[in-house]
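Fold this sequence, please.
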Amino acid sequence: MLLTFSIPAFAQFANTGNSSNRNTASTYENHSGMFVEPAIGLMVGDCDTDFGIGVGFGYRWHIANGFSWDVLKISGNTGVSHLSEMFDARFLTGIRYTTDAIIPGRSVYVNFAMGWNILPDQPEWTGFAYEIGAGLNLTNHVSLGLVWEGNCLKYEDPGYPSMHNGLLGVKLGYQF
């Protein structure tokens, strides 16, 4: 019975996936596809403040007018002088909302994602990962925005303190 209901509902969302009847005064239109998002900024929190770098890639599915679902985003971030000790591998899912064009060819987006992270060199450190961002879609495929990529790590053995850090920076996005 659930499958019988789900198939028509899924088909409804799938029909809205690559077209939009929203304001067509701009050349920007939501679409599904793979994306890559490098970021630079500051690594801050329970670590030495450092120049930070990050990169993420995944698949974004346009589910309804203005709303997209980052089905799976695999990313990582670290401070440049902490490359070997504090590289955070992150596995996220999240929502992205894009407005109608604010000026011809440009629209604004906001996103929120959450998931899980791990330090690959120290697998006993795992925890909650999240991302909050906002920016401008420059073209149909390119965006530029501000991002906070937060990491909340906890050691698997009680008695160790937890660690909270993150990358505060600028993110360039390209969606294929």
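The longest helix spans residues 2-16. The longest strand covers residues 88-103.
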